Amino acid sequence: MFAIDRSSPIALFKQIEAALRLQIAQRVLPGGTRLPSIRQLATQLAVSTNTVVVAYDRLVAAGVIDTHGTTGFFVCAPMDASRAIPDEVALEAGQEQEPVWLSQQVNDQRPGVLLASSGALPPTWLHDALPAAAVQRGLARSAAGMASRCPPQGLAELREQIALLMRGIAADASHILTTFGGTHAIDLICRTFLQPGDTVLVEDPGYFLMFGRLRQDGVRLVPIQRRPDGLDLDELEAACRVHRPRLLFMQTALHNPTGWSSSAANLHKVLIMAQQYGFLIAEDDVHGHFQPGHSTRLASLSGLDGVIYYSSLCKALSPALRMGYLAAAPALLKPLMRTKIHSIMTLPALNEYVLLEVLKAGNLRKHLERLQRKIMVARNASTRQLSAAGVLFEQPGDAGIFLWGSMPDGLDVDLLVQDAYRNKILLMRGAAFSANDTPDQHIRFNVAFSQHPRVSAYLEERLRAVAGARSSLARASAAASIARKDA
User: Fold this and answer.
1) Rounded distance, CA 268 to CA 28, Å?
2) How far apart are CA 485 and CA 487, in angstroms?
3) Using omega within 30 degrees of 0 as the cis cutoff, is the peptide bond preceding 453 cis?
């Protein structure tokens, strides 16, 4: 049938697999051909039956051959082209800049597309955050290995380590619930505490994926303007009087998309209103790991009284690990855990053991400090280059991965982001971050990607063309005015 090379460094089972793949590809073994039994092939090649079993199992897993019960192994028929899996799901016309479409573009990472408005860091910035050896060491922490189960609340030892991450927040392991990240925490909060018809207050601008998620639950969204020092308190109080909200979602530090952080005074007044009008607060601190130093959090001011705090390590540590957490008082945490059990039961034990290994090794702090320095260098470069191209930064934040830049008046931002995507630059318009899709001249820039010269060069060319058209229009208007006066 074929020969194997015992002097080769390639494992015998891999040689058998490769030889069979080649014969099937060359139609030496056409579709429907019955292969030798495991024992027959092992005898022909003078190898152990286990070696043939491994090779056959790999071919079955790849869909190259199939087993028909006790009748043996058969070569699969070539796949019909009509059944081939497409490279991607086609998007309908008009979906550009819709939140789910934008998220898909960022995570698909299409070759050649510069993710200038992405919400994530470049993969190269995270390579040293999670050593491959940490996976093996983490798994070794459990006597059950890959058969390990994870408690629904999360590993107790991991929750103790997470409590140490929450600077200034009086919470221990009993207050913490592990999640798949910030988006999962939002989903748990919505499922647990919201009913159709409830009113939810959201920041405007705010986290763009949240608005659609809330509308799925049939809740009423009331946007509150976000300012550099926090929520607009007059708007907040007016909304509380009129709508009696059930919940407020708020980002206190390094707000997405603006990069602003709330002042302690603003947060104190938000807590007073929450107590006065009886609504819960969900505090989003997903970007807090990018902040050098420390700023005030609602969770620390309130002692978790009426505040559900959540964060994630997906952006700062590893999107592959997908680990986050939330913290709440026991009366709020218990129903959240029930919802988690109903929806996903628990997180993979492997994820939790690996994160536990990383946190106990003590490398996270140094990794975050390195990231913060890289981000600051990128912020300075992006701000300088984008400003020179004509982007306006009226109130830039102090840190974090986002810049909230404004385009000149008269520029159609919707057309700009569509043209940018055709030129393989992904930009997100300000209206995508509005609960009401309100027209907005802003664009969110990710500083890690926006320092690339392609971004500033593209914008400089487009903005210069707009400025030239406006100048020509002004000269024409002035000439017409002079002509009318002479007449």
Assistant:
1) 76
2) 5
3) no
Q: Could you give phi then psi for residue 158, rounded to 5 degrees?
A: -65, -40
Cβ-proximal residues to 50 (8 Å cutoff; 6+ apart), any chain? none
- Give the separation between CA 433 and CA 203, rounded to whole angstroms: 9
Q: Are 134 and 317 in contact (CB under 8 A)?
A: no
Instruction: Give me the numbers of helices (H) and strands (E) for the chain, helices first please.
Output: 17, 13
CA angle 180, 186, 192 (to 5 degrees): 105
The encoded tokens of residue 116 equal: 């200038």
Q: What is the pLDDT of residues 31-51, one digit of tens each?
A: 999 999 999 999 999 999 999
d(CA 477, CA 39): 91
For residue 460, is it left (φ>0), alpha (ψ between -120 and 50) or beta? alpha
281 and 306 Cβ atoms separated by less than 8 Å: yes
Of 334, 321, 340, 325, nearest in space to 178 by CA: 325
Q: Tokens 């986050």 label which residue?
A: 324
Of residues 450, 439, 428, 441, the one with CA closest to residue 208 = 428
Contact 200, 220 (CB under 8 A): yes
Partners of 445 in beta bridges: 403
Q: How many CB atoms lie within 10 A of CB 24?
A: 20
Cis peptide bond upstream of 223, omega within 30: no
Q: Is the predicted pLDDT of residue 478 greater than 60, yes or no? A: no
- Backbone torsions φ then ψ of 36, nearest 5 degrees: -60, 150
Question: Strand 324-327 to strand 428-429: parallel, antiparallel, or no bridges (unpaired)?
Answer: unpaired
Which burial class, exposed, middle or buried, applies to 19 when counting CB atoms under 10 A from its CB (0-12, 13-18, 19+)?
middle
Cβ proximity of 351 and 322 under 8 Å: yes
For residues 291 and 56, what is the distance between their CA atoms, to the nearest angstrom?
52
Q: What is the pLDDT of residues 247-302, one digit of tens each?
A: 999 999 999 999 999 999 999 999 999 999 999 999 999 999 999 988 899 999 99
SS3 assignment, position 464: helix
Q: Which two tokens stand for residue 209?
A: 């994926």
CA distances to 31, 182, 343 from 152, rounded to whole Å, are 47, 17, 11
Question: CA–CA separation, 256 vs 381, rounded Å?
Answer: 20
Q: For the chain, how long is the longest CA-to-CA vector?
A: 107
Task: Calculate ∠ Cα 427-429-432, nearest 5°.
Answer: 120
Both ends of the chain: CA-CA distance in Å? 100
Contact by Cβ (8 Å): 76, 31: yes
